[in-house]
Amino acid sequence: MNKHLWAGIAEALAPQAALLSHTDQFAQQAAVMVLITDELSPQIIFTLRAKHLTYHAGEVCFPGGMWEPEDATLLVSALRETYEEIGLLPALVDVLGALPVRPTRSGTVVTPFVARIPADYSFKPNYAELDSLFRVPLEQFMTGLQIRMDTFEHNDTQYEMPAYAYQGYEIWGFTAAVTAELLMLLRPLLRVG
Predict the structure, then answer these.
(1) What digits encode the pLDDT tens for the residues 113-144?
(2) All domains of the chain in start order, with CATH
């Protein structure tokens, strides 16, 4: 992708200055990294959580996790967890901004940070936490991977979100909702780019 497109993505993402200061308000919150490879045909990085885990076992997710008291910010949480899960060095993550905060089905409030990473990075998945790591080309989402619409209820409000399928992986729930939000943001930029 060209530098104008990356600048457009950064400009379109929600300003999240409040997330970059330390406060106890982050207790019981989490953060994930939506990683996009910097190449002609960019890809989004996803993980498949190990089936033996207590939470979200066997689900497709973005790397990330819960805020911990030693984390100065939610971004620090996301970078720390991403390194622990897939071995991506924080110094190689070019954070462009964040998508709006949203709750998971269990009620955890999650901040999705969006970042550009080198195309040729050799990940080191932590197989104690993950079954696999996979990439989905952005253009595949744009041409159609959606298989259905799911309806979820949270705090007496119903939400509809797409579900996607790619090479045997099913992307649904929170991860699909964040992906759909990113795709909506990218569509006009890709037409221009």
Answers:
(1) 999 999 989 999 999 888 899 999 998 988 88
(2) 3-137 (3.90.79.10)
